[in-house]
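[step 3/7] fold_predict: job queued, chain A
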Amino acid sequence: MSTCAPQTVVSELRARIAKLEGRAAHPRGTLPFGVATIDQVLPGGGLARGALHEVAGGGNGAVDGAAAALFAAGIAARASGKVLWYVTRPDLFAPALVQAGLAAARVIYVECGDEKSLLACFEEGLKHPGLGVAVGEVARLSMTASRRLQLAAESSGTIGLAVRRWRRQTEAADFGMPTAATTRWRVSALPSAPLPVPGVGRARWLLELIRSRAGESADFVVEACDDQGRLALPSDLADGQGAKDAGRRRAFA
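[step 4/7] structure written:
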């Protein structure tokens, strides 16, 4: 009796389900982070294309919120194609995204009147196969809304990034509710890398992979995105036990 590799069986089942649902299965793949400790815990060795991913700051403050936006910008910088970035508030500091590798010429900013309009525009943008990434800044994300975004991303192969931003602390509780996102990340700013001389070193983040569909949850201490959108392990964690501690696997998702 012949046997099939589990991944082959899963791919065939997905294709059959897509056919039954009346939608073509768009070729997918992954966007690697280029950091082995992160890529090895993600199915396929990277961030899934044609999928929705959630990103939020580790706290309710502006510092962690900015770190989450820069993390999203770094992902967009490493993907090819134009980037749509949806906002409801005109307070995004675009020059900071350039420092994270996201060239201004690649980004089209869309200001929406409210979150309902933003989610509708976000969904339409994700259906466009010519885009590299679509980013939407939202406070609340229901299961229904996230499912629509996930299906839109699957139909085009575009990466969707839902960057969670909250005006009030009570809105942050919504981040714990289940959604259809493929991964869920939390980003917290850490003290910058020490330098041998007085000055400010490269920023560091604590990345928490809270949820990964068919993967594992883990924590990572990384150096923030450089001008190419690339993350890196801090030099004092790049080898030995430090690297193991920087990528602690916590649970199956």
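[step 5/7] annotate
Helices lie at 6-20, 36-39, 62-78, 94-99, 115-126, 143-156, 241-246.
The first strand starts at residue 30 and ends at 31.
exit 0
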